Prior knowledge:
Blueprint: H1 2-5, H2 15-31, H3 36-42, H4 48-55, H5 75-88, H6 95-109, H7 112-124, E1 129-132, E2 148-152, E3 155-166, E4 173-179, E5 190-196, E6 202-207, E7 218-229, E8 233-234, H8 240-246, H9 248-276, E9 278-279, E10 282-283, H10 288-316, H11 322-346, H12 357-365, H13 375-385
Parallel strand pairs: 1-4
Antiparallel strand pairs: 2-3, 3-7, 4-5, 5-8, 6-7, 9-10
Amino acid sequence: MAAQLKSPTRRVFEPEHEELRQSFRSFLASRVVDHYPRWESDGIVPRELFTEAGKHGFLGMEIPEEYGGGGVDDFRSNAVIAEEVARAGVVSFGVNLHNDICIPYFLQYANDEQRRRWLPGLASGELIAAIAMTEPGTGSDLAGITTTATCDGDHYVLDGGKTFISNGINADLVIVAARTERSEGRHNSLSLIVVERDTPGFTRGRNLDKIGMHAQDTAELFFEGARVPVANLLGEPGRGFRYLVSNLSQERMTIALASVESGFRMLDLTLDYVRERKAFGAAIGSYQNTRFQLADICTELATTRAFVDSCLADLVAGELPPDRAAMAKLAATELQGRVADRCLQLFGGYGYMTEYPIARAYVDARIQRIYGGTSEIMREIIGKSMGL
């Protein structure tokens, strides 16, 4: 039943996207899936995984060909990558962050010299990207960022700290949101500065110990008099808040797409289990309660996917408003949480065992309602769009 819902009835994708899907699915099956448990134990994926992905054309699909990218400005390719990572259950592979969240800043705001310096490495995977917004005391409040960058000749001197930074250990290029301008408005003093791996005064803290997504290197970053060339300023000074907000809809669509696909994966895992597992002399799936539970899950996933697909089409057409992106993320991530809970329940005690994929999917799902803007922030955006 779930497989039928994943059929070509999804009109948002073209044949070339399905070809990419099959190619990337094969890449994950041959290079990632079997090694993933070890990387979960290590708390990080190997750097060479990014270069291998780059060699196969799975990084920077929209980067112009002259810089080694795919030259295809079509977010549906990114959507395929995000869905297949979720489908394979290897959600700690930070390829979506690199492709969907970080690279757009370089494409939209980097000058010609910066593009020549950074884009080829981002496309090949030799340069891994991260973005550092969150601070210990700010969370979703981007305007509350306190990290400062003081101009000193041809350098900025950065002071401050960031936390919960995905790709934080592996990253070679970190887009740092810092205050560079003196302004009465909190929104008008932020700038984006690219900090390179070996910058003096830039240090990485511990690889944070999380309840899920264990192979995702999530780190604390510290800047203590870090001297960064002014030439690493991304875009115009003082416009960082606008830049950050402008890319949030795309980030939220990545999360929404992955959440729905993760939900279908959990449904598939549960269908396989309830068909085989017996209780009181019959397969669990033969009981009416089980059928009704899974029927509800299947219906909710199908209807949510239809909405998310319509938002994806709007995004590709340049017509997706922030409130619709917020709706997509809110609906998809909240549903993913409900599916994780209800499916795990049908596994009984085995669902609590980490050797079962449903248990890992359960803990991995929890972050989806937090990063990219919490569910509460999504409700605020939607509520304000209603004039409330």
